[in-house]
C-alpha cells in the first residue's frame, strides 16, 4: 500500500475590467454580482466557485448539496487522467478505452472530467434535480454525448452494472463531517464505507474512492486488505481537501513515489473538449 500527497494549485480569479464586483450581504443571505440570492452558509463555497468549475460563469447549474459535495475541478481532472491510463493503448494521449461508473455523480463535476478522458461514463444519482443539472453542465463542457445518465440508487443498481472502473464519493453527512476529529468510516450515512466499497467491487475491483480528509489512515487500509491500494492525499494549494483511495490495477499507476504538481487555469483551459 502506498501513501502519497497530490498538490494542485487552486483557480485564481482575475478581473480584466478593473475593480472586481463584490457580493452584497443582507442578514443571513447574500446577493452575487449576477443577482443570485444565496444563504450566507454558502458564501465561502461561492467564493471558490471557479475551483469547482472553471467555466462556472458560462451557466453552471448547482444546488446547495452540490456546493458541499462537488469535487474541485483540478482534483477531478487528476483522477480522470489517472483512470484513463488503465487501458490506454500505446500512443493514446486523449481517451482511455474504458467505461467508468460515477456512482454518485451529483451535479456532474467528476463525470464531466471522466468523459473528457474516457470513452464512456455511466453517471448515477438518486436525485432527479441534480441529475438534470449534471446533464446541463455536461452539455456546457461538450461531453454529454459520452455520458449515460441514470436516475437511481447505486447500492441497488450495482449488481446489474458492467464497467472497467468505479468512482465513488458517497454522502459524507454534509459539512458537519469536519466537526469530528476522526471521520468514522463505519458511520457513514446509509451504508458503511466498507459496504459501499463491497458494492462497487461487484462491478470492478478497479475502484477510485474519494473520502474526507479527516479519515484515519489505518481504517482506510483495513477497508480492503486483499487488494493493492494507493492512498492519495489531495491538496489545492495548501488546503487539504480529501483522500482518494485507488484499488487494484489503479493502485499501480504512478504509485511508487510522492508526486507534487501545480495546475492552474491555463492547464485547465488546454484540456480536451
Summary keywords:
273 residues, alpha/beta, three-stranded antiparallel beta sheet, 23% strand, disordered C terminus
Layout of SSEs?
Blueprint: E1 2-8, E2 24-26, E3 29-31, E4 37-39, H1 43-47, H2 49-52, H3 64-69, H4 73-84, E5 96-102, H5 109-117, E6 118-125, H6 128-141, E7 147-151, H7 154-157, E8 165-168, H8 193-201, E9 207-212, H9 217-221, E10 229-236, E11 239-247, H10 265-269
Helix pairs in contact: 4-5
- Average pLDDT over all residues: 84
Which strand order spans the largest sheet, edge to edge or round the barrel?
Answer: 1-10-11-9-8-5-6-7
Q: In this structure, how is the largest beta sheet organized?
A: 8 strands, mixed
Distance between the termini: 34 Å
Classify the secondary structure makeup into a structural class.
alpha/beta
Could you give the count of β-strands?
11
- Form type: globular
Strand content: 15-25%
Order of helices and strands: EEEEHHHHEHEHEHEHEHEEH
Oligomer: single chain
Contiguous helical run count: 10
User: Helical content, roughly?
Assistant: 25-40%
Amino acid at each position: 500500500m502506498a501513501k502519497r500527497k497530490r498538490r494542485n494549485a487552486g483557480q485564481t480569479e482575475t478581473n480584466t475590467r478593473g475593480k472586481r464586483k463584490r457580493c452584497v450581504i443582507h442578514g443571513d443571505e447574500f446577493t452575487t454580482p449576477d443577482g443570485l440570492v444565496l444563504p450566507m452558509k454558502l458564501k465561502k463555497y461561492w467564493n471558490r466557485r471557479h475551483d469547482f468549475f472553471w467555466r462556472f460563469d458560462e451557466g453552471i447549474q448547482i444546488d446547495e448539496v452540490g456546493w458541499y459535495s462537488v469535487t474541485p475541478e483540478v482534483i477531478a481532472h487528476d483522477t480522470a487522467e489517472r483512470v484513463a491510463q488503465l487501458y490506454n493503448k500505446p500512443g493514446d494521449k486523449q481517451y482511455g478505452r474504458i467505461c467508468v461508473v460515477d456512482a454518485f455523480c451529483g451535479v456532474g463535476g467528476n463525470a464531466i472530467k471522466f468523459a473528457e478522458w474516457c470513452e464512456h461514463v455511466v453517471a448515477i444519482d438518486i436525485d432527479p434535480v441534480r441529475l438534470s443539472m449534471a446533464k446541463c453542465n455536461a452539455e456546457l463542457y461538450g461531453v454529454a454525448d459520452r455520458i449515460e445518465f441514470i436516475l437511481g440508487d447505486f447500492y441497488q443498481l450495482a449488481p446489474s452494472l458492467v464497467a472497467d472502473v468505479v468512482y465513488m464519493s458517497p454522502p459524507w453527512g454534509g459539512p458537519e463531517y469536519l466537526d469530528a476529529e476522526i471521520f468514522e468510516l463505519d458511520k457513514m450515512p446509509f451504508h458503511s464505507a466498507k459496504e459501499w466499497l463491497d458494492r462497487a467491487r461487484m462491478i470492478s475491483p478497479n475502484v477510485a474512492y474519494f473520502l474526507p480528509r479527516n479519515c484515519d489512515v489505518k481504517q482506510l487500509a483495513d477497508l480492503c486488505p486483499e487488494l493493492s491500494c494507493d492512498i492519495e492525499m489531495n491538496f489545492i494549494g495548501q488546503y487539504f481537501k480529501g483522500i482518494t483511495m485507488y484499488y487494484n490495477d489503479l493502485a499501480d499507476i504512478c504509485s511508487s513515489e510522492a508526486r507534487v504538481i501545480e495546475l492552474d487555469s491555463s492547464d485547465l483551459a488546454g484540456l480536451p473538449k
